[in-house]
Amino acid sequence: MAAVIGYLVVAGVAIGAVLLVAGPHQSSSRDPTFDLEKVSDRLGGILSALTGFAVTGLIFLVTQADGVPDPNGTSFTAVLAMFVVAYMGYYSSAVSVANVSRPVGEPVFDLAAAQYAGASISLFSVLLGWFALKPLFETFGLTAIAGLTGWLLLGAAIGAYALLASALHRTGYASARTATALGVCAVVGTVAYAIVIGVLAPSLRSGDATLALTLVAFVGGVAAYIAMTLLPIAARRDGWAPILADRWHLAILAYAQGVTVLIGFLLLAVLGLA
């Protein structure tokens, strides 16, 4: 529970900081060389493969449950939950990408860019499916590869954030300064929490942290998916398009910052530091 409370506090502060950096009004526009139609079509195939990976991993785990010392324990349940949430995340991201609008003329609100930015954040959030690999190896006693995987996951998180930052920048939702602030706030907040817990309250570390944060990811993902699904309806209502064009970047950046901090906390959890 401490990890969830810590996440909510850090995410709240980080979101406030990045929104201050971005400003209250949308000031950027989509990169004209960024062909969302072609990119979305190509990304759909990649997401299909990742969805298959998550399902295959889940089936493998279920078939191997008899060989796990405590299949109903928190550790193995967390691994299963991470694969289930990853599957749902890949599927919802694929649906979001498949429904990216094709603008006609010069719309007041660039709905396609907003949809792609939201889908990119959702895709980044399901990095937790990769994070499941370390506790998975530990469950089967493969400590050497589990230790190596911890470092590989750190590199994967950095690389995945670079891809997210690029998507936000090219869709016009984050300037270079704002994209940098997103990453810096997430790193500073995550490291600060790890230091506070490690030095002042190590007893608050819990083996349930990974599972609890995975459930937070699921709840947040459902809320974001509903918002992105309703966005095209709102964009077509009279008077809403100018407001969305001016203010929707606040929702996108808040979502991106919340997910970025969550990924940092999940990394701490699988490393046993939360």
How would you describe this structure to a colleague?
Helices cover 77% and strands 0% of the residues. The N and C termini lie close together (10 Å). The radius of gyration is 19 Å and the shape is globular. The protein has ten helices and no strands. With 274 residues, it is mainly α. It has helices at residues 2-22, 36-63, 74-98, 111-125, 128-131, 133-139, 143-170, 176-200, 209-235, 240-270. The chain has one domain (2-270).
Rg calc: 19 Å
Structural class: mainly alpha
Shape, please? globular
Runs in which pLDDT lies below 50 for 5 or more consecutive residues are: none
Topology, element by element:
Layout lengths: L1 H21 L13 H28 L10 H25 L12 H15 L2 H4 L1 H7 L3 H28 L5 H25 L8 H27 L4 H31 L4
Helix pairs in contact: 1-8, 1-10, 2-3, 3-4, 3-6, 3-9, 4-7, 4-9, 4-10, 6-7, 7-8, 7-10, 8-10, 9-10
Keywords:
274 residues, mainly alpha, 0% strand, globular
Please sum up the structure shown.
The chain is mainly alpha-helical and 274 residues long. The chain has one domain.
